[in-house]
Amino acid sequence: MLRLYFLIINCLLCQLCFGQLGAVRDSANTDVVQNTFLRKQPQDAQPPSLIIYPNPAKNKVFLQVTGFEAGIAQVKITDTRGKLWKQDSRLLISGQEEIAMFLSLTPGIYFISITEQSKVIRKKLVIL
């Protein structure tokens, strides 16, 4: 429960801090100057990707995520039968993140999927 409150507070702080950086008032005239380096251009958009290492793993994995927007992403771990073993919400600060996960799974084949808005990526993980 405390983790959920922390996540909500972080989201609100990001919204307050970064939500108004898109436009800067020019003092010479009253036009609004757009700050282009804060907006993602369509040509800069990367397809989402996920790298899991080490793979195969025992109890700790790192997820290298690229191509996602800043915000909340859902991380799910399922087995080959579709049974959900772990579900977690993670706050992504930038488009490129590294997420460390500690797992206590029985040996076998699992799938890790990361979902954010309309972007979904899924990769296989082998636990020894």
Q: Can you walk through the features of this model?
A:
This protein has 1 helix and 9 strands. With 128 residues, it is mainly beta. It has 2 domains: 1-39, no CATH class; 40-128, Sandwich (Immunoglobulin-like), CATH 2.60.40.
Could you write a compact summary of the structure shown?
With 128 residues, this protein is mainly beta.
Features:
128 residues; four-stranded antiparallel beta sheet; three-stranded antiparallel beta sheet; Immunoglobulin-like; mainly beta; 48% strand; 9 strands; 2 domains
Structural class: mainly beta
Instruction: Determine Rg (CA atoms, Å).
Output: 18 Å
Helix count, DSSP H or I runs of 4 or more residues: 1
Q: How is the biggest beta sheet arranged?
A: 4 strands, antiparallel
| Average pLDDT figure | 76
Strand content: over 45%
What is the CATH topology classification name of the largest domain? Answer: Immunoglobulin-like
Count of beta strands? 9
Strand order of the largest sheet: 6-5-8-9
Helix content: 10-25%
Judging by the overall fold, what is the CATH architecture of the largest domain?
Sandwich
- List the secondary-structure elements in sequence, H or E: HEEEEEEEEE
* CATH secondary-structure class of the largest domain: Mainly Beta
